[in-house]
Amino acid sequence: MKKILLVEDEESLINVLELNLEIENYAVTVARDGEEALRKFKDSFDLVILDVMLPKLSGFDVCEKIRQTSQVPIIFTSAKGTSTDRITGLKLGADDYLVKPFNLEELLLRIGILINRNQHDGEIDHFSFGSNEINFKTYEIVGNNGKEVISKREMELLKLLISRQNEVVSRNEILDKVWGKDNFPTTRTIDNYILSFRKYFEKDPRNPEFFKSLRGVGYKFEIK
After folding, report:
1. Residues 20 and 106 in one domain
2. Statement to judge: residues 116 and 190 lie in one domain
3. Which of 21, 191, 192, 195 has its CA 20 to 30 A from that of 178?
4. Which residues does 200 contact at the CB level (< 8 Å), separation at least 6?
5. What is residue 176's DSSP assignment?
């Protein structure tokens, strides 16, 4: 039985979600404020449903704390539906963001997709190439500037390119797998990520050895 931490302070919504999640055979633990969520998160969970506006500690703060130690899937639910709020939540490392009132069936579908994806993600924790190192669990890299922490989105793109090393990955595939069908970044966004990777890992960013761009086609992580 998969375990879900439901962080919500609206009692009527707690009752509806708890009932429907248990019908779907999930074990549900409820936290009604941000501090309680962090206390209860010490247990192992397969997914977190996290409201943004919470007593004591905001959902954004809770997400940031969780991401320091865990890559558990996180879905934000919030009445705050501006693009700025969504971007903030996703930058902090959330996997999804649903605006209230949301469709219950859609929430259940997204939960199933995220839990299934997390189960089947590559098991690799560390990867080294040249003098560089990547820790996929802690988001830490060791590159030209020593040790630093990168964003969840950067790590997802790194993981995709490395999993397909020496193959060209198209822009459309990257946008679909890393940003998802509900987000619409420009292809220039990917270019900026690749430029960052070159600054992190390449001895000569202007003449990259590992992170190659093929004009009009896509990108390749190359190891000879």
Report:
1. yes
2. no
3. 21
4. 132, 141, 143, 144, 145, 148, 150
5. I
113 in the same domain as 139: no
Q: What is the pLDDT of residue 118?
A: 62
Say yes or no: 135 and 169 in one domain: yes
Residue type, 66: I
Helix (H) or strand (E) holding 133: strand 132-135
Q: What percent of the chain is helix, strand and coil (3-state, nearest 5)?
A: 40, 25, 35
pLDDT of residue 172: 84
pLDDT under 70 in the chain at which residues?
A: 43, 118-124, 181-185, 187
Determine which helix (DSSP H) or strand (DSSP E) holds 132, and give its type and residue range.
strand 132-135
pLDDT of amino acid 13: 94
Contact 125, 105 (CB under 8 A): no
Output the domain CATH number for residue 108.
3.40.50.2300
